[in-house]
Design a protein that fits this description.
Layout lengths: L1 H20 L21 E12 L5 E5 L10 E10 L5 H5 L1 E8 L12 H11 L6 E6 L4 E4 L12 E4 L7 E9 L4 E4 L2 E5 L3 E6 L5 E8 L2 E7 L5 H11 L9 H8 L2 E9 L24 H5 L1
């Protein structure tokens, strides 16, 4: 009897231990040991308004202020910030452009240079490609500078512009990338696309896998290599969602493959402000019956 009890107890303990590992929420395991990342990162651009503030060293500091206002014939200040997402898509960034536009300013907006090779070199040097990276535009050097532990924000990153019409004072920054009809990496494939055909290649060895012929904005014919195999073609079909008579416009190609993107950010200055005021100074309206009320009114 003791033996039977001991066996039963051991069995209960084993089952209890097993249940601790076999959670009802476990749906499966992935032992693929993936060592590569999908480089699909794009980015964004931002106009950052600044104002000058006094510091303790008898100088001034730059302070971000969403309450910054414009006054006719006076200056406004702003910086341009660029964010490169983690695991950046080199094809997307190589075709990217950054531009500025003005309203209500005396001068025209300056040009912004954007060289992906320079941005990438800075990111690689910092070994930070696995996180989003922030850059500020240096208007003196005409280059983007990576924000890292050594970065110090200074006058070179602030654009000073004279206001012509305060009510319209506005700066917009735009980041665009368009490589329609060219080529790029999409998932595990390398794709070339235009209004008449889409060609899918193996991204690793460059072998042509599938050609989609487009006629009258629809898939007219599909050709795939015999060595590609049925299973591989079905995988491609499931990934791209393309088959005979699928509607395919150039606009849809650009949108689906992410080769025609636009990110825009604007800042409009308020116009209800004096050029320089003391933030701690409060001007009170005289009380009714005050002897100075007539002097205040007239």
């Amino acid at each position: 009897m003791k033996k039977i009890f001991a066996i039963a107890l051991a069995l209960v303990m084993v089952l209890s231990m097993a249940s601790a590992f076999a959670s009802a929420c476990t749906t499966g395991f992935d032992w693929s040991c993936a060592t590569t990342n999908t480089y699909c990162g794009k980015g964004s651009i931002e106009v950052v308004p600044y104002v000058k503030t006094n510091n303790s060293c008898e100088g001034y500091d730059w302070q971000v202020s969403e309450c910054a206002s414009a006054v006719n014939s006076e200056n406004v200040y702003y910086a341009v910030k660029l964010t490169v997402d983690a695991y950046a898509d080199s094809e997307w960034w190589a075709a990217a452009k950054a531009t500025l536009s003005y309203k209500g300013m005396v001068k025209a907006a300056p040009a912004l240079t954007l060289k992906w090779d320079d941005l990438k070199a800075a990111i690689v040097a910092e070994e930070t490609e696995d996180v989003a990276n922030t850059f500020y535009y240096d208007f003196t050097a005409k280059a983007w500078v990576l924000v890292n532990d050594d970065f110090e924000f200074g006058d070179a990153y602030v654009k000073v512009e004279e206001v012509e019409k305060a009510a319209n004072a506005k700066v917009c920054a735009k980041l665009t990338s368009s490589a329609a009809g060219k080529a790029g990496v999409v998932g595990d494939y390398y794709v070339t696309a235009n209004a008449t055909s889409i060609k899918v290649y193996n991204e690793k060895d460059g072998k042509l896998l599938v050609t989609y012929t487009i006629k009258n904005e629809k898939v007219y014919k599909i050709e795939y290599t015999e060595e590609c195999g049925e299973a591989t073609y079905e995988t491609i079909k499931a990934f791209f969602g393309l088959e005979i008579n699928t509607c395919v416009t150039l606009k849809a190609i650009q949108a689906n493959f992410g080769w025609d993107d636009k990110v825009e950010d604007c800042f409009a200055w308020g116009s209800k402000a004096a050029s320089i005021v003391d933030a701690e100074c409060v001007v009170a309206i005289p009380k009714t019956g005050d002897a100075s009320v007539l002097a205040w009114l007239f």
